[in-house]
Amino acid sequence: xxxxxxxxxxxxxxxxxxxxxxxxxRELKRMRAYHAEFQQVFGKxxxxxxxxxxxxxxxxxxxxxxxxxxxxxxxxxxRLVGDIDTxxxxxxxPRTGAGRRANAA
Length: 105
Description:
This protein is an all-alpha fold.
């Protein structure tokens, strides 16, 4: 009689262990699916960050070009204004600052 009782206890323990193993197996499957999804998300994030980094580099390069071009044009404009002032002074035309102030506003 004690033999059957011991066997029943061991069988119950085996059954509980098997159920626990099945539950853990389902949990591992779910975790693997999450892991694959996380890997995809991180891959996409890495690609997006590389694209952003490339865009920032392009913007910096283009910004430098724009600043250099703008500086050249400002210098040319200043020379032109100086030439106009020189011509105006040479012809004896009265110099008025009203036109320049009106354009600045």
